[in-house]
Amino acid sequence: MHNVVSHSLFTDFDIDLFKSGKHFRLYHKFGAHPVTVDGVEGTYFAVYAPAAAAVEVIGDFNGWTPGTHKLYVRWDGSGIWEGFIPGLGNEAIYKYHITSTNQGMTMQKSDPYAFHCETPPKTASVIWDKEYTWQDGEWMQARHAKNGIEVPMSVYEMHVGSWRRHLDENLPYTYRELAEVLPGYLREMEFTHVEFMPIMEHPYDPSWGYQVTGYFAPSSRFGTPEDFKYLVDKLHQAGIGVILDWVPSHFPADGHALGNFDGSCVYEHPDRRKGYHPDWKSLIFNFERNEVRAFLISNALYWLDEFHIDGLRVDAVASMVYLDYSREDGEWEPNEYGGKEYLAAISFLKEFNETVYGNYPDTITIAEESTAFPGVSKPTFAGGLGFGMKWMMGWMHDTLNYFKIDPLYRKYHHHSITFSMIYAYSENYMLPFSHDEVVYGKGSLLSRMPGDGPLQFAHLRVLLSYMYAHPGAKLLFMGGEIGQRNEWDFRSSIEWHLLQYESHEGVQICTRTLNHLYRTEPALHRKCTDPEGFEWLNIDDWQNSVMCFLRKSENPEDTILVVLNFTPVERTDYKVGVPLSAKWKQVYNSQDPAYWGMGQTGSTEMVVQDVPSHGKDQSVEIVIPPISAIYYKHEGPLPRKKAKRKTPSKKKGKSRTKGKKE
Question: Of 85, 517, 602, 644, which one is least surrounded by beta carbons within 10 A?
Answer without folding.
Answer: 644
